Amino acid sequence: MSLDSGISSLIYRIYAGQHDDEILDSAMDEIVAITSSNFIMLAALDNEFGAFSKIRYCGNISGKLLSGFKEYEEEFARIDPTIAYTLSHPKQRYADTRAILGEDFAANSYTRWSRDALMSEVWHLFYTEPQADLVLGMALHPGVHHEGLTDGNVALSRLLFDHMEHATRLAARPPDFFGERDAIIALDNRGRALMLSPRAERYLAQNDGLELVGGFLRGKPQHRLDGLIRTALKGTLPAGGASGDAVSIGRASGKRPWAITASPLPGSAAFFACFGAAALLHIVDPEEKGPPEAAVRWANLYGFTPAEIRIAKALLDGEGNLRIIADRLTIAHATARVQLASLFEKADVRSQSQLVRLLTRTGG
């Protein structure tokens, strides 16, 4: 199955499935088939309490598996080693039980239970960084006689999960074409602009490195902008990239570059179907300042999660004691430390004072 045919169609259905459970189940069943797995577990994990808030199973579900799922939720989820690993390695985004358990894998009581109850012993886990203390996860379960996913299937599953994460975010926060919240452009299947939000029109009116020529967006470096749009239209990702990857477009004024992200759009939503939109561009101007747009700008410029943004805002409010911030936000001090370290890494700073100065310049 090539990326230009079946996989592209599968990725598109992942986005459409955010609006239709049957389409999502169909997409998950196809992932099970092409990765030679028995079933998929989709779950939302509460990062603060280390417990699942929602679990969904897809694939070859038998009566024995249903009993195993019930045992898992009632008893064995509490000792699932992948949960502890996810909480302690929030940036890793992928792991399997064989690597997590190491030499103890075969003899581990959890592995033995999984082999018997779920007919699977090697779990391949793909997960997001915490978003508002929730982690979205997808676990692929090959059959008990399989050694696990091949490297190729792991790479393919990573790509599909990246799109699943992006699709979930897009569904949770639909684009606003009529207000000032977003600078967005809807594209048809050729990459031609169909509709611009007022904010996007205002950005292009500045004639500062971005323009529409014959309906197509132009900016330098053009090859990177074209590549970003092309991958969104095809439903694929650049090599080594992740969903929502951004490109920087230079500005003649010397101001900091525009940041542009692109994503596929499902035709299942009536609004998109009406206009024939196939992809969405989101433009961010790092020079614009001031709330309430600051949180959106930080998320797009640096990839800050909602939980990290709450830490950032507390720092901007003048509170420098992380324990006090954690108490105020009703989170564990250890969680606040992890989130602050993530802020440092994403913003490429080494101290709270550097972070505060950067956030002040970009919206605080």
Describe the overall structure.
The chain has 364 residues and is an alpha+beta fold. The protein has helices spanning 6-16, 21-34, 63-74, 81-88, 97-101, 109-117, 151-172, 198-205, 222-234, 270-275, 294-302, 306-316, 322-328, 333-347, 352-361; strands at 37-46, 51-59, 94-96, 124-127, 134-142, 184-187, 193-196, 211-213, 216-218, 246-249, 258-264, 279-284. The strands form 3 sheets. A 5-stranded antiparallel β-sheet has the order 2-1-5-4-3, with helices on both faces. It has a 5-stranded antiparallel β-sheet with strand order 7-6-12-11-10. α1 packs antiparallel against α2 (21-34), α1 (6-16) packs parallel to α7 (151-172) and α12 (306-316) crosses α14. It is globular and about 65 Å long. The protein starts with 5 loop residues before the first helix and ends with a helix. Mean pLDDT is 80; it is low at 236-244.
Rounded to the nearest angstrom, the distance between the terminal CA atoms is 47 Å
Strand order of the largest sheet: 2-1-5-4-3
Radius of gyration: 22 Å
Strand proportion: 15-25%
Structural descriptors:
364 residues; alpha+beta; five-stranded antiparallel β-sheet; 15 helices; 12 strands
Brief overview, please?
By secondary structure, this protein is of the alpha+beta class. 44% of the residues lie in helices and 18% in strands.
